[in-house]
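dumping this here before i forget
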Amino acid sequence: MSRAAIAGAAALALVAGCGRKKKSGPPPEITGLAAVPASAEVVLVADVPRVLDAPLVSRAVDMLIARDPGLAASWQKLHDTCKLDPKNIKHVTLAIGPHPGPQPGTGPVLLVATGQLVETELAGCVRTMVGQGGGTLTAKPLGTHTLYEAKDGNRVMWFAFGRADTVVLGASEAFVTEALGDGKKVVDNPEMAKWIGLADQKAPIWAAGRVDDRVKQGMVKVANGQISSGPTAYTASFDPTSGAKLELDAIMASPADAKTLESFAKTQLGALAMVAQAKSLGTIVDKISIAADGNALRLKAALDPNEVNQLISALDGGPPPPQDAPPAGSGSGTGSQGK
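structure:
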């Protein structure tokens, strides 16, 4: 091949390579875990159609969103005003970022929702919604995306579309901006990627996260120093499609710590069973199994639909389910307690 031909081929390769680089740029489509920043410490993923009607799911999401009151209030108003039907949402990913203060688990919350969503319709609805209370909606470019800032009183929410059917929103501009940027994501974080890989991602709901150092130290104290270190991380899976199946794995520093914590946890479970009797939840506690597996401590529970309803009633502070009436002529009914 002639020198001119080689130079021409090199030039073509360089042009093609530059063209490909230009197209790659910031990710044009960001959804699911690809929208979760590498700084996230907890992720939770839900397959919405599979869990939409499960009571325990609604309660769990409410508790998680409650960590960020600003986001919770904004999302609720958005849901009510824009008539967002949960049936049109396919997947939801929740992420908690690093906490800025002394309280673990209080970092910014990011919500990534994928489904039948249209950016122009959602932005227009939000503009109308916040305008009713004297609020504003502003927009500015963010790479290949548009970042919206919705202000309503003392509440602020930022959101953007990672792709045509995916909205990313949160009460922290920095966390949302990080999610939409081309920086590293949670799957690029070696530790988080490892823990995410250990989770049962086929479950309708699954989660993985890092355990804060202060929580780890607290676990050592709670266990009376029987373990060298508290859990490093945890994974969880939850299937509420028929009753409720839960698995929670605590990733320990060593198999020895996992085995020691197993003994300690079983002792605590026995004490919990006695307390649960007062709430008529003894049979539910009996469904919990605890076992060490390598450096993981696994807690499993499988409840039928009736037991799920009983648990929700207790969590909501309702009265315990009615007990069977004592046989006629049994007096006060206390005679059978010793049996």
